[in-house]
Design a protein that fits this description.
Number of helices: 7
Largest sheet: 3 strands, antiparallel
Shape: elongated
Distance between the termini: 78 Å
Oligomer: single chain
Order of helices and strands: HHHHEEHEEEHEEEH
Strand content: 15-25%
Helix content: 40-55%
Number of strands: 8
Radius of gyration: 22 Å
Length: about 230
């Protein structure tokens, strides 16, 4: 059930983020690439439809939406799905409903190797939410809601299912799934899910990683040989 107060909150949120540079860039880019040709009011209506319109994921009740899935999280068949927003993680942890279970080391770091790992802004973690475990979940950390909305909207409207984008020091793989409408919404597509992940290694990154691992193995061999020589 979506109440009138909740609808008002949705539109207030959209009105607020549409005034930010992130969403203004999103609108400008979509116009330049001819993916959208309307004014800001029409753009707000489009965002509301794609992000907040209720739909069914299994041809049943209209019980899900793109925003709810991506930013707030859902539970299906005893498993956590979605839930990719760090602000909501913080609020749920503060309320005692979210339990961080561990960090999954990325293939390649976005920050330089000498920087503390807590500076990373694209992370993959494990967590428990409302007594349900999500073993692998990736999220941005420290970014604004309008940045995430703009990026995911661009990938949904102007990209594909998998999109490698440059975000500051990161090559990020943005996965964006669409959801088909049923019944009265047949023929429409909505945002099913969208989330960040580490992009595949480039040739240079792969070569650098191989060289680094090779030097590390050589260093360990030298230490082992030196210790063995001392014992003799």
């Amino acid at each position: 059930v979506v109440t009138a107060a909740e609808l008002q909150e949705d539109h207030a949120f959209l009105g607020a983020i549409l005034r930010t540079p992130c969403m203004q860039y999103c609108l400008k880019y979509l116009r330049a690439t001819k993916k959208f040709a309307g004014d800001e009011k029409a753009f707000e209506a489009l965002l509301f439809e794609k992000w907040f319109a209720m739909y069914s994921r299994s041809r049943g009740a209209l019980d899900s939406s793109g925003f709810e899935h991506v930013f707030l999280g859902e539970e299906k068949d005893g498993k956590v799905t979605g839930f990719h927003n760090w602000v909501h993680m913080y609020l749920e942890e503060k309320a005692g409903r979210f339990d961080y279970l561990g960090y999954i080391k990325p293939r390649v770091r976005g920050q330089r190797c000498t920087a503390p790992s807590e500076w990373e802004q694209v992370v993959t973690i494990q967590f428990m939410w409302e007594a349900e475990v999500k073993p692998v979940s990736s999220s941005f950390i420290g970014t604004s809601p309008e940045f995430e909305m703009a990026l995911y909207t661009l990938c949904f409207l102007a990209g594909g299912e998998e999109n490698v984008v440059r975000c500051g020091p990161y090559d990020v793989l943005i996965t964006c799934y669409t959801q088909q409408g049923y019944g009265r919404s047949r023929g429409k597509t909505y945002i099913g899910s969208s989330f960040p992940g580490t992009a595949p290694l480039t040739q240079d990154q792969a070569a650098c990683k191989i060289q680094s691992e090779s030097r590390a193995r050589a260093g360990r061999r030298q230490v082992a040989n030196a210790l063995a020589a001392r014992k003799r």
